[in-house]
Each structure stands twice: as structure tokens, then as C-alpha cells.
Amino acid sequence: MRLTRCQAALAAAITLNLLVLLYVSWLQHQPRNSRARSPRRGVAAGPRVTVLVREFEAFDNAVPELVDSFLQQDAAQPVVVAADTLPYPPLALPRVPNVRLALLQPALDRPAAASRPETYVTTEFVALVPDGARAEAPGQLERMVEVLRAGGARLVAAPVASANPARCLALNVSLREWTARYGPAPSAPRCDA
Length: 193
Hints:
Elements: H1 5-28, E1 49-53, H2 63-73, E2 79-83, E3 99-103, E4 125-128, H3 140-150, E5 169-174, E6 179-184
Parallel strand pairs: 1-2, 1-4, 2-3
Antiparallel strand pairs: 5-6
């Protein structure tokens, strides 16, 4: 069977359209700033930890105060506030480029990568910070990074100032949901948190 010029042109046009579609799909699944995703070295390169606030109450939260406390320690500190849907009333977050609100609910008007929190992380480490916490000790995030680099630890927990005495808790970390849940610890010699 002979291939006519019209059939060859049609096959070439279809192939070109498929290549363009494949390229656009590949671009959509890439992180927004793929150059910044390489691990940074040294303190002079900037913050090595992204502060992630994942779970908070829609009406009664202290997320703006939490963000301000970390920005007072380091104005370039990357902070990502992740919510399933757009919070109402709106959060009064500072309008700086290193503070981002990540909406995890997929939407047609946003790229697919915008609903994945890992695309907002441009640092080597992530600190899951609960609502209501404050950054009061200067250099605490850097000390946590040094502990991670020094030993075989994959997770570091930092104490939060409290009037209650310290007690053992069981810690359940879900990397898929980006959450950490605390509960009563079974009687064991070693504490999770």
C-alpha cells in the first residue's frame, strides 16, 4: 500500500501534536522552581528548613502569629501553610514571597502540581509545626538540622514550652498526609515523643 502526500502530512501533524501534548504534560508535572529544589549547603546559602503548618482550625487559629514568630527569627524563612480548601475567614499572612498558602484540593484553574505540598518545598528539610507554636529559641531549626545530619535519625522532635510536666506520647507520622498525630503512649521504656 502506497502512502500519499496527504496521508504523510496528516501522520506528521498528528505526531507533532502528540509530541507537543507530551511536552506540555511533562511541564505541568514539574515543580514550579526546579532549580531551587537542589539541596543547599551551608548557612550562607539561606534557610535549610521549610516550616510547614498543616492542620489548624478555620475560625480559631494562631497561624499568622506562628508565621510572624518564625519570620522574626529569619526574614527569609520559607513557610508553607497547607489547607485542604481556602480558609474562611482568610488568614492574615504576610505578603512576602517566602510565605505561601498551599491549597491541597485539586482545582481546574490551577496546575496539578499546585495541589501537592512537596512542590512548595525548596529546602532540604521540612519542620511540621503545630498551630499555636512559636519560634522563641534562636537557631532551633538549625540545631535540629545538625542532629539530623550527625546521626541516623530521620525525625527530630522539638519541645514546646508548657506548664504541664513532660510525659511520654506515642507519635504516628503519616508522610503521605503530611501529618503527625500524638496519643497516649503504651507503657514502654522508650518514648516516641
